[in-house]
Amino acid sequence: MRVIPLHRDSDSDYSCTCYWVLGDHNTGTDRNTLIDTGSSNLSNLAYFMKEMTILSKGIGKMAVEQVILTHEHFDHAGGLPGLERQFAPKTFSWLPLGKQHMEARDGMHLTVGDQDAIIVHTPGHSDDSICIYLPAVRTLFSGDTIFRITDSQGSYTHAYLESLERLAALDLVAVYPGHGAPILDNVSSFIHACIDNASRALIQD
Questions:
Q1: DSSP label at 130?
Q2: Structural domains of the chain, count
Q3: Range of 137's domain?
Q4: The dihedral of CA 121, 127, 128, 134: what is its sign?
Q5: Staple partner for 131: which of 60, 120, 164, 171, CB 3.0–4.6 Å?
């Protein structure tokens, strides 16, 4: 599996980190996948297209065969129309988004790059938030469900805390979040620290 972070942020455009996931050997069964599309700024699409010319994607295969949206917020899903014009991918999401929408549901299996992936519904940041878990490589794409909660000054719902606890039960060595650097060391300790801080800042919902 090859994971290529794609991120272009500026003062005038706020966007998440998207992840382009390819197989190691460009086989016919690989599914070239983009996890989140970033904002609607056209410069994002131009940047993606430039980056996607660098790596081999497989003979006769589109650079993006499918999109998985971790949730509908503009900085994660706003770029979908531009990607659709370029690649016409199937789009998996909890809510109906995109011209070729495929309903994502908890426990659904998909091929991402050359890996089996499982959709995990993780409400809390938003009702439609999902994560993508690749058990064979112990990797999670977390959207905005996992981020660095370093103190108890925020406000967190019970639903969000329950989603974190569910992710803490997974066997993980790598987390690729929607914002910030990948978490590649002591993942379990990191998530449990986030749970501890969030639990001390629960709101009554």
A1: E
A2: 1
A3: 2-199
A4: negative
A5: 120
